[in-house]
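Notebook, p. 212. Picked up where the previous page left off. The plan for this session was modest: take the two constructs that came back from the sequencing core last week, fold each one, and keep the raw output in the notebook itself so nobody has to go hunting through shared drives later. Recording the first one now, exactly as returned: residue sequence, then the structure token string.
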Amino acid sequence: MVRRSIIPLPLILLLCCLLTGCLGSKEIQDQAYITSIGFDVEDEQIIVYFQALSFANIAKKEGGEPTAAPILIGRGKGSSIEEAFNHIEQTTAVPLHYGQINTLVISEKAMEKWLNTILDFMGRNSFLRYTTWTYGTNESIQDIFEAESFFGQPPLYTLLLRPITVMKENSFLPIVPFHDFIGDFYEPVGASYIPSIYINEEHWQEDKEKKLTAIDGLYVFSEEKFKGKFTKDDLEGLKWFNPETNKIYIPLKELKVSVQIVKPEAKIKLKGKNKPVYNVEIDVESTLDQNVEGLEVKTIEKQLEKKIKKQVMNTYEKALEKKIDIYNLTRNTYRFHHKRWDVGTINDLSKESLKVKVNVFIPHTGDYKK
């Protein structure tokens, strides 16, 4: 005789209730995904911008090309950041999803007047990931958020949202996640950076000129104060201290020579008694790409050493005019030698505080070998 199991009625009802747990969930295509937040200032009020993508922006057609759906830009204004946020949220037609925020853009005006308020707000709200990329700009944030990509690709394939993919092979400027900036900003020594982003309409076109985002310098901060913008030309020396620098092309026009440098290495040694002195030795290995006059390799190496040293000192002295330690020489001094020198002494840099030696080696000269 077969025994039959009887399931109690209360247990059946409980299981039915559990099955209804997903009825209230939202479909991904029914939400606007906030991917970027921007802050600007207008008439003494804070302006908040949202860049939002629908699922159509992110997904690709099955077996086809990426779908370039329109970008949604939200704009709110208020006497506080909370008021500006509410201004946007109260007028939205679909739910806003904050879990995918990838980029923070702050205008130059907002940096000057609202930066501490912005950082405090971001620190109190969990929707901002500490891996969020951070930029500054003196252009329209709406234009930055509407920038294009190549071949009709979705906005995810832009420098704004994927800076490492775009910049790692061709830029010496640091790419700054929010948590790195915050950590450096509140240090009593050294400098913190935010890359300066702008719209470049000059170099690429498809059917028409492309509006692409590009980096043209850094906004620099020291001792929790905004110190201004430095252009790429101002920052030529920074590439020799950035461990992420991957490839550098240097022309010596007067010699009709060009070289390519990969992975330079800077070693910093601390000296000094009454004040810190930094002895920096930069080792550079390069490949000779052009040598029209067939010059001796040793001659080229010496000229390169002079040029690199000049770049390092020019950037250092330009930053020193604004009392900035642009190379963050003082960071380790403060951490490991604060009993030897106080903060004021550590921050009191001069031209004599930095000594630079450059060693250039050209192991491979191609067809120009002498």
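Okay, moving on. Second construct, recorded in the same format:
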Amino acid sequence: EQLMFSQFLLGFGSAFFLAPAMLAGIGGVIADQRNLVSFSVLFGMSQNIGGLLGSAILGTFQTWREKFHSSQLADQLTTLNPLITERLQQYSQMYQSQIGDSTLLNVQATTLLQNAATLQANILAYNDTYLLTAAISAATLVWVFWRLIRLRITARIALKRATGSK
């Protein structure tokens, strides 16, 4: 349910890329029938390599940012901080009826706190990954509009030169 919007965006974006790419390729095939195999192979390879490379880059970035955020959060997890001490006591109280040994109780509380910190680091890393994707998408959109405007201006200048008007 939560992934429906992101899947919609992927499908919507694919429609804007795949249709023009297919039309450009089919135009080459119509011009020369011998290009059909080359187009099919090249298009399939570009889709596979692009998908694999994109997943690898984003996965690496997410892992790198998780390590960064884990390091930042671990620096703040000290028993000198009263909030951390309070949280450890809360975790200890959760298992006090099940674990009688105070050392094991402290280990369990510390493990729960570490798990919470790791979860938070992963959430922050995924947020960074989504922000990177949004920045790349926004930059691509700006670049596409800039190219479109530049092409229109160039076409107008060429038309004015061809007609001899100012």
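Notes on construct two before I forget. The first helix runs from residue 4 to 31.
Flagging for discussion at group meeting.
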